[in-house]
Here is the input.
Amino acid sequence: MAAIETLGDLRRSGYRSRPVKQEIRDNLVCKLRSRDTLFPGIIGYDETVLPQLVNAILSRHNFILLGLRGQAKSRILRGLVDLLDERIPVVPGCEIHDDPLAPLCAACRARVVEEGDQLPIAWLQRDDRYVEKLATPDVTIADMVGDIDPIKAAQAGLNLSDELTMHYGLLPRANRGIFAINELPDLAGKIQVGLFNILQEGDVQIKGYPIRLRLDVMLVFTANPEDYTARGKIITPLKDRIGSEIRTHYPATRPNALAITKQEAWTERPGATRIEIPPYVREVVEEIAFQARTDRKIDKRSGVSQRLPISTLELVVSNAERRALASGEALVVPRVTDVYAALPSITGKFELEYEGELRGAEQIARDLIRTAVGSVFSGVFNGVDTRTVVEWFDLGGTLPLSDTTSADDVIAQTHGVQGLRELSEKVGLPPGAGAPAVASAIDFVLEGLYAQKKIGRSDERGYSAAEPAPRRTARREEMTLDDDIRIPNSKKKYYN
Ligand SMILES: [Zn+2]
Here is the structure.
């Protein structure tokens, strides 16, 4: 291929260009035959989304991914690039990447006639054949399809309806490639009509002038199912031209969710001291998203993105890093209390229902963390007797710890709490674990007991005995809100 420099070379090589959807289909068939990984990095869709996606591509469909935010929709679309040929021959300088063997635009057609086999060939890399646009109501037909340039027309002495006067928009520039439109329902109706016309007839009207463009584009879209069905803002003829409608979803299982967060979160930090994230910290962070997705105070229609646990884990690691730097520790081990320092990455990632608004985003986030800790703690400490530790607090013991307390201080201060060290070892500390790891395990036990309301915690006093259960005279409103914090039954396994 590298030796092909002119149209003559290309013709002699026997190269045959294919429509883009055929090309993507052919390459997919190859990958399926050789059992290559399709869409590397996409986790948890093997039995749901991917089979439908493969079928759509095999059928040479334009398709739409329907799903809530943070369900890897854009990532899947970008993954289509891997199914394009590594490079294709184009007429050099052509804005719509014309095929030298069958050019569309008048300028290229003229060049082929003039230069014949001497016409030079350029090669277009596959990354340059993917065009993405976020739909917004202010996107115009000029942005999408193009505009007529009257100055160009006047200078060349052309009629305005001549395609040579065209200033190309995004769609023609995606010719022989993939054009992805995110949030399709946000695109104004008349722009959708324009898209439809170009798909159906290969022509479009710009400022009253009909322009014919027989483009070869694979069109892919994303949309939020709420906008799509409830508001119904995708015009019917366009909807009709979308061959497949594929629904995405949040991770169905905890292991899948953990794997996604592990893959996406920036936790391997070059230059930083060694970072070891205990499994229970990862699980608590993940559990927050699972709890949030079922919490009735949180708006289900807007969803809870997988970006919530991803950015939360990043902040958790940063808080641990900050503590380690301040106390001169060489090993960074995040603690469960560090999750509370990650509130800024939680509160902005969900929309509240009315009941949630009353309670406030920050309090909702704290409730979610506490419930998540309780859930993970119940799973790890299922059937383990924690009474010795609880009694120490009931007898008046207090521990003024915070997320800034150094590992050595945590160990020293909790030394006298009978049974605590033994409990903390149940989380699976490796032999010879460093002080930051031991301190993190102790912190997990204390936070777990707090989540189960067996001990209390306040900003001023740290950990202490549990508050007595609220009496019946407590204000009614407060009671109902508190009841809502579900602490899972300790007999229940938290993994699904
Ligand atoms: Zn051209």
